[in-house]
Design a protein that fits this description.
This protein is α/β, with parallel strands linked by helices. About 30% of the residues lie in helices and about 20% in strands. Strands 3-2-1-4-7-9-8-10-11 form a nine-stranded mixed beta sheet. It has a five-stranded mixed beta sheet with strand order 13-17-14-21-18, with no helix packed on it. About 5% of the residues have low confidence. It catalyses: a 2'-deoxyadenosine in DNA + S-adenosyl-L-methionine = an N(6)-methyl-2'-deoxyadenosine in DNA + S-adenosyl-L-homocysteine + H(+).
Length: about 525
């Protein structure tokens, strides 16, 4: 890449020039290289959209771009500052980039930006730090103010970033450095977000585009508690499509842009939520404003971020917040299937065998349809039986009533929640196997009645529950933790739903939606 030099076009904006440099680089490296480094370069339209959140009239500004790539976000932000802040006279820009093949292009981009600033009578200086952003600033996660040689960290007025996205192991030095702000397996982007808050001045501005996965779930619970106590959200933009935001790099997950300020959380603050399908309709984004505590209630244990984008979604959220009961209040538990296929391979069987080895049916994710269980289904390497023998018995569960729910939804699933009732009389077996990609809902030390089993499955399959789930979850996975935290109507309502479905022998989604809406008096209109 060092021998390649691209010339700016006449009167080309720095961000447009950076875009062309980024495309040049992206076309020169493999998908594996980009995936390994979590590199998803920011489209120009999104860079401008993020930069438009800039809000400061200071004469001097210090900006941090901790994962700069070719510098398109820095360029878009400086352009916006110069256009909107007539008082600005000096901008200090600090960027981090560790890919040695990208840096020659970053230099070209920022040199052109420097000339652009000079033409507009703004003194711009920049520094490219070829260090790992997290390790270089790891001391910020430690409270060393009492040390004899304590040196205060530098701080910034604005941090803007499209950080890398990939999971890191607990043994990774970056994970160890940031262990105070996450639990389980961390995704590196959340560490970028947490560290950036520590490098912000009080009232400093933070603008990030990331996956939406930190909004809920157990892995990000500690992070949410840390981050949202420091950052007051002013704006959240949700890209509803899983594939339209970074389509060039085929990123298949929901993405959000957040804009906030380093301020104490206060009741009464407002948060604007906007949404678009992708980039094409970003300029016509739908906007709604909520009190900040409706988006994020820090008084709850999970501190989930809710992103309603319509009247109907807001109404659904309001209904769920009137309910106080969860599964645990009804003596019901949610667990994950104990059969991990690759670890249990020696116990699995594709066909029923007449021998002295007893077999139990094994249920996989693909066996679970909406309100229906289809078994067996012949698939390569997806055995439908598991041995009943002493070493395998701890992996099996008693054959009784369960609600089975897929832990992952596929791109072909209309609903994010795919649930079905399993009634024990389906199979004449003492034990059954549940594969690890299946969640199961049951009553420990007792049993769900048929009405409860069907009623719970129907609720989870309904439009209202799917809508509620989408308001706080943008992932393909459905964790047991999230299911445990979902609120439920009265147990009598659940039983009535199940009883009516069984009496009518009607398990269709249209019937279920009408029944559920009538039971909780909810209109399915926006």
């Amino acid at each position: 890449m060092e021998s390649i030099h691209l010339k700016p076009k006449n009167d080309e904006s720095p961000s447009s020039f950076a875009k062309r440099l980024g495309e040049l680089y992206a076309d020169s490296v493999s998908k594996d290289h980009k995936k390994k480094n979590g590199q998803f370069f920011t489209p120009l339209e999104i860079a401008h959209f993020m930069a438009a959140y800039f809000n400061s009239n200071r004469k001097e500004l210090k900006i941090l771009d901790p994962g700069t790539g070719v510098g398109i976000l820095s360029c878009a932000l400086v352009e916006k500052i110069i256009a909107n802040n007539k008082l600005v006279r000096k901008i200090e820009l600090v960027v981090y980039e560790i890919d040695k093949d990208v840096i020659p292009l970053t230099i070209q981009s920022l040199e052109y930006l420097l000339k652009f600033a000079a033409k507009n009578e703004v003194v711009l200086t920049y520094e490219i730090r070829q260090h790992d952003f997290i390790l270089h600033n790891a001391h910020c996660f430690r409270d060393t103010s009492g040390d004899l040689f304590y040196k205060e960290s530098e701080v910034f007025d604005i941090v803007i970033s499209n950080p890398p996205y990939f999971k890191i192991a607990k043994t990774d030095l970056r994970a160890i450095a940031a262990s105070a702000v996450y639990s389980g397996h961390a995704n590196i982007y959340s560490i970028f977000m947490a560290l950036s808050t520590l490098l912000l001045k009080n009232d400093g501005q933070l603008i990030f585009i990331t996956p939406r996965s930190y909004a809920s779930g157990g892995y990000f619970k500690v992070f949410r508690s840390f981050f949202f106590k420091k950052i007051q959200l002013n704006n959240v933009h949700l890209f509803v499509s899983r594939k339209d935001t970074f389509s060039r790099d085929k990123v298949l997950q929901e993405t959000v842009i957040i804009n906030g300020f380093k301020q104490e959380y206060k009741l009464g603050n407002q948060t604007e939520i906007s949404s678009s399908s992708g980039i094409v309709d970003i300029d016509n984004a739908r906007k709604r404003t909520y009190s900040s505590d409706r988006v994020l209630d820090l008084n709850t244990d999970e501190k989930i971020m809710y992103l309603p984008t319509s009247d109907y979604e807001e109404h659904v959220l309001g209904v769920f917040r009137t309910w106080r009961n969860k599964f645990i209040d009804y003596g019901v538990k949610v667990s994950t299937g104990p059969v991990v296929a690759f670890r249990s391979k020696k116990y699995l069987r594709s066909e029923y065998q007449n021998s002295n080895v007893y077999l139990a049916p094994l249920y996989w994710l693909h066996n679970i349809k909406q309100m229906e269980i289809e078994w067996p289904i012949v698939k390569p390497k997806k055995e439908q039986y598991i041995n009943i023998e002493p070493l395998a018995k701890p992996l099996l569960v008693p054959n009784k009533n369960y609600v089975l729910l897929r832990r992952f939804s596929s791109k072909d699933d209309k609903n994010r929640l795919v649930a079905a009732p399993y009634l024990q009389y389906y199979k004449k077996a003492e034990l059954i196997g549940l594969e690890n990609k299946v969640n199961y809902i049951y009553r420990p030390g007792g049993e769900l009645s048929n009405e409860e089993t069907v009623g719970i499955a129907a609720l989870l399959s309904s439009t209202i529950y799917d809508t509620y789930f989408r308001i706080f979850n943008g992932n393909v996975n459905v964790s047991a933790t999230e299911l445990k935290e979902m609120t439920l109507p009265d147990l009598e309502v659940i039983q009535n739903i199940g009883s009516t479905i069984l009496e009518n022998n009607n398990f269709t989604i249209d019937f279920i939606n009408e029944l559920v809406n009538n039971q909780i008096e909810l209109e399915l209109t926006e």
